[in-house]
Amino acid sequence: MNNQNIEYKAKEYVYELGNAALENGFKPDEKWQLSLVSMADKAAIEKKYHPTVFVMAAQENILAMFTLVKEKLKQSPGPEINIKTVQLDALQYLIAYNLERERR
Length: 104
Prior knowledge:
single chain; alpha+beta; three-stranded antiparallel sheet
């Protein structure tokens, strides 16, 4: 996937986040928590939080998407994640959730 496609996918994902926030009645101060996760972690997050919005991408692209989405949401980059970590931990999903919206 080239840089234009990655940027397009990131914009599309941010758009989906906006729609999900509207559909679920997010207040203006509620923010998405973004994480790069493995399949098992994704399942655990989906079980614990609602709503969740995720996208799967190739390991060589997911890190760039994560960075672009964080920039578009005006969130700080957080801890440094590199491609080696992505590969070793089998991180293939970018998932967004709200820490204040746990399932009951």
